[in-house]
Amino acid sequence: MMRRNFIGSDRSETVRNKQGSNMEIFERLESEVRGYCRSFPAVFTKARGHALFDENGNEYIDFFAGAGVLNYGHNPPRLKARLIEYLREDGVTHSLDMMTTAKETFLRRFEEVVLRPRGMDYKIQFPGPTGTNAVEAALKLARKVTGRTEVVSFTNGFHGMTLGSLAVTGNAGKRGRRGNSASARHQHALRRLSRPGY
Ligand SMILES: Cc1ncc(COP(=O)(O)O)c(C=O)c1O
């Protein structure tokens, strides 16, 4: 029978691992910088809607939801069907910033649904797929447009682990993890509004 556990809630300790040897390969080969797997020590096999399943057949309610990015849940049927169809038709899956019909379709729809009804005369930039890519792009854009170099950041704000994002992270613990020299590089261009000690 399926057991129900909770991911991303105060009860996450209920998933403390009982799988021992199954985790050996991760311990032995994967970098020490890995993080979330330490909070959720299970080896997952499937994900559907609100649920994750591990290799022992346990079911978990996933409150973590990919740190909040899985707005439609895991593998929502409509998205899954379109994705499978796209792959079956050999749709382009890597194109850097080249032009593809998939991007054309997206741009047309975005303009129709989001921009035009709001009278927004905006340009669209496609950064890499991570949050920190978007933050880096925003930092560069702000500097370019304003011509200024200083950026303010707030206590405990988290923006990602690349250099620029780390430099505007108002939490000394997070910045320190990459070595102080890394984040110190941009210190001249920063004004932190963190409380003392952060
Ligand atoms: C507010 C915020 N900004 C940026 C990031 C960085 O995103 P990524 O890990 O995809 O680079 C995160 C990640 O948790 C975030 O919560």
Molecular structure report:
With 198 residues, this protein is α/β, with parallel strands linked by helices. It is 37% helix and 12% strand. Residues 9-16 and 180-185 have low confidence and may be disordered. Bound molecules: pyridoxal-5'-phosphate. Pyridoxal-5'-phosphate binds at residues 67, 130-132, 135, 158-160.
Compact overview of the structure:
With 198 residues, the chain is an alpha/beta fold. Helices cover 37% and strands 12% of the residues. It is built from nine helices and six strands; from the N terminus they run βααβββααααβαααβ.
What keyword list fits this structure?
4-stranded mixed sheet, 37% helix, single chain, alpha/beta, 198 residues, 6 strands, binds pyridoxal-5'-phosphate
What share of residues is helical? 25-40%
Mean pLDDT: 85
- Distinct bound molecules: pyridoxal-5'-phosphate
Q: What's the story with the biggest beta sheet? A: 4 strands, mixed
Shape: globular
Class from helix and strand fractions: alpha/beta
Rg, alpha carbons: 21 Å
Strand order of the largest sheet: 1-4-3-2
Q: Low-confidence parts, pLDDT < 50 over ≥5 residues?
A: 9-16, 180-185
Please tally the helical runs, counting DSSP H or I stretches of 4 or more residues: 9
Give the tally of β-strands. 6
What portion of the residues fall into strands of 2 or more residues? 5-15%
Order of helices and strands: EHHEEEHHHHEHHHE
What is the distance, rounded to the nearest whole angstrom, between the alpha carbons of the first and last residues? Answer: 47 Å
